[in-house]
Amino acid sequence: MAAATPTQELADEIALLPRHTRDRPRLRELADGTSTGRNLFANDTLRYFDSSLTALWPQMQAAAAAERALPAETLLSGGVDAMLATLVPG
Prior knowledge:
Blueprint: H1 7-15, H2 19-22, H3 25-32, H4 35-53, H5 57-85
């Protein structure tokens, strides 16, 4: 969950942004770990998910399940060596 991200990790990521962006009040509050900053972050994340991902979520879950099914079937039918042989580095 985005709201559970440690404050220091958020502050480190925000520090990488250009100064004119990272100095915005809402980002400063988030980097400082204030409850207001965290609540705004959590609410913004949920609104983004609702507006951009909700409609696609069932398809994303189905694709992830299909990706898991193939190695599982290979493991069951051919064992660990067969499953590992299907893995590609990179």
